């Protein structure tokens, strides 16, 4: 078993770490307070190639592997959750689905500009009354001649008002439950598409979260991803990728709590000694270190499985559940280490605590993941082969331009 990272992975991690240290960490507190997304971040992430990091070069990406995607998400969330959320929706839940399920034409037309960062992408599954209970969604895409007429409203959509492309799930046959759901690529400039932002969130305040409404939006088969009725499976396969980005990001949030707590404990003096000398402070640091290591390894296993092209729904679920749950624990402990200062926005740990709470809710609540793990353990649930698997990482294919005919 080889736990070492290769040169390319280390290089990508360093590039994102430098960006986070120099351009995000110094200003992020201010944007969080303003509750606005810094307009410079998305273009800068595009420029650095982050928005296409693990997409093959032939589709406008950087050609790195799935382990690198996890490392990038860790570095982004070390700085702030909002930047990792961008990767979760743009890459994990949307671009990777186009790579997995898209036709060649859809890859050229939608994936390539997304990977280049010319277009931003989002994922529209959740509705105002429908979160975990995906199969009961109310959005419909009614077939009329050779067109689909899409109606519905999606809620809690990251990048709702910023994205150009949406992966939108709707029922083409409401009588079939989960098997009547179909996935569509919708663009923000289509007549009948409106979006808006949600304000007053506990965390992810420097990010963009909102709603997407579709009223009589006309779509054709060219907008359909996969076959009619495959939408539920496609949504679940998207979540296998999105949850990996969330779990890897939460690993970075645990590391942020650990690093900031160590820094503070070394300079804060009580009872005549730095608080790093007090056993109960040491215990908190020790737990954070343990949670970081376990979260890192669980998520790297997922990256490795994806590189091999092995179905990883269970491993992704446990990695996401563990990392996000422990990021909340780590943030609580980090605030405690900082004492009263942890209660103020003079230090970043109160932001970490507010941001951590989203991770145990979006992309499957911790309770959904517990149910899934128990069902796997009992054998009630199994990972079956898919019609279309996420392709295994093949450096030759990923890094080379296609040969001209
Ligand atoms: N990949 C491919 N196919 C899959 C799959 C996967 N990961 N998981 C399940 N399937 C297939 C199954 O094989 C099964 O196929 P067959 O009918 O052919 O046997 C079919 O889909 C149904 O699967 P299940 O029986 O496992 O489905 P379920 O009804 O038990 O699933 C659930 C229930 C686990 C609660 C699921 O609905 C779920 O995960 N809900 C949570 C939804 C979620 O995470 N929402 C977050 C939205 S994203 C977001 O928040 C974005 C944002 O912008 C922040």
What does this structure look like?
- The chain has 405 residues and is α+β, with helices and mostly antiparallel strands.
- It folds into three domains: 7-120 and 395-399, Orthogonal Bundle (Butyryl-Coa Dehydrogenase, subunit A, domain 1); 122-231, Butyryl-CoA Dehydrogenase, subunit A, domain 2 (Beta Barrel); 233-378, Butyryl-CoA Dehydrogenase, subunit A, domain 3 (Up-down Bundle), CATH 1.20.140.
- Helix content is 51%, strand content 14%.
- The protein contains eleven helices and ten strands.
- It has helices at 7-34, 41-47, 66-79, 81-101, 104-116, 231-267, 279-308, 313-338, 349-359, 366-378, 395-399; strands at 121-124, 140-144, 147-158, 165-171, 181-187, 193-197, 209-219, 224-225, 269-270, 273-274.
- The chain has a four-stranded mixed β-sheet.
- A hairpin with a 2-residue loop joins strand 2 (140-144) and strand 3.
- It is globular, with a radius of gyration of 21 Å.
- The structure holds acetoacetyl-coenzyme A (CAA).
- Acetoacetyl-coenzyme A binds next to strand 3, helix 6 and helix 10.
